[in-house]
Amino acid sequence: MLQVKTFQTEDKLRNVHEEARMNDEPLLMSITERIDPLDPFSFFEQGKQVDMHRHFWKSAEEDFTLVGIGSAVRISKEGEGRFQETEQELFDWRKSVRQWNPYNKKGTGTVALGGFGFRPESGGEEPWQEFPNSSMTIPEFLLTNDAEGSFLTTNYLVSPEEDVETIICRMEEDKERLQTSDSSGDTETGVRLEKIEEVRPKEWKQSIADATAELKAGTLSKVVLAREVRLTFDSEASITKVLKDLSDMQNSSYVFAFEHGGSYFVGATPERLVKVEDDELFSACLAGTTKRGSSEEEDETLGLALLNDQKNRLEHDYVVQMIRGAVENYSVNVEIPEAPSLYKLRNLQHLYTPVKAKLKEGYSLLDVVKDLHPTPALGGLPQKEAVTYISLHEVMNRGWYASPVGWIDGGRNGEFAVAIRSALIRGDKASLFAGCGVVEDSKPEEEYEETKVKLKPMLAVLGGEE
Ligand SMILES: C=C(O[C@@H]1C=C(C(=O)O)C=C[C@H]1O)C(=O)O
Ligand SMILES: [Mg+2]
Hints:
Residues 202-454 form the Chorismate-utilising enzyme C-terminal domain. By secondary structure, the protein is of the alpha+beta class. The protein has helices spanning 2-23, 40-47, 82-95, 164-179, 184-187, 201-217, 239-249, 296-307, 310-330, 365-372, 383-393, 444-461; strands at 27-35, 54-58, 64-69, 73-75, 97-100, 112-116, 134-138, 141-146, 149-158, 193-198, 222-233, 254-260, 263-269, 272-277, 280-291, 331-335, 341-344, 348-359, 380-381, 404-408, 413-418, 422-426, 429-438.
């Protein structure tokens, strides 16, 4: 059976290579096959032996996980046009794809995974030196797990001058390595936390006080300000273990990891930016926060207080206003409930308003990402002024924190979440980030406490207390 499969792959590769040679240009070969159920964490861990450029994505709401190893194509853009330019380049690559994918399933084939930094321009500031401003990768090996099982896509950029036999040999070796089960994660104990350093907490609190003064005086209605906490461990952190623990502990969150130059941006975010499935569009307004109660009763009381709290409702309503306005531009049948409900996570609860619509023809997922990012849940209102304010006054460098991360396939499917509740991990060090929506009535001490709770999920999987 295995032999038949191998023979088919070889045959396809030979044909594609011949065509590439005749046209004297590279072709993107993409083959999707169903494989025996495969653990995504094992695939991610084994991926280390193939290529360190690894991507991980797990949906917050459905049985859907993507793991990408290596890159057949990498697209990296910067500046205001980065979303459209990425889209155009993906489109161009897909024109030269030779594809075998009998499953017609979202998230298989020439899927691109990655993200876009918070701002269109970035100067490789600490600790983000390894990260390009944006990066979308079509991985060489992609594992797609959903309710129906496991699917393995092999994407390979076949160039005319390469030797086919060498490609076949390496590809088969890598595929076998990736499908060999790794059990080291089951016994790993994780890192010991040696040092926690809050980055200029006093200055950060002062920045909140300054922002409230600005909000009262100026044209800004809301601005989100974040802070950083640095950790040092006794040894190198295992990203696979971190992902596994996040998935276990934060099951209503998107779990993600993106590698660049040995640094990993990892997190478990509850916040969807936008999902498109065929022409259906889903977004979410998530803003306004309180902690969880220690008893069911206390939890309910806290939730009810949040639903009725003016300051939090205002924080939330700015987000709804903006997302409604943006989505109405390129969709019809926009459905948004009148009032928010509660979105409960392990450590905190948020005000939540889901958004559903039908995307008009001619618009794509990245068009929506471009317009929505950053929503007032991460930037502020008005959008442009808030982003400028953040650049000038925030006590850290955002890099990819609070930015759109996700995936997009060759059909009309994809999803981007907002990369909060996240950390940048490199070897035995990590930077954790958390922010909060500042409105006129914000109190520095309360916002500080709010960010403390938001840091807990990442801290807990990195040896800290929950
Ligand atoms: C900015 C963050 O979270 C955002 C801010 C929230 C708030 O201030 O209430 C709630 C959810 C998120 O939209 C973060 O977690 O870093
Ligand atoms: Mg808040």
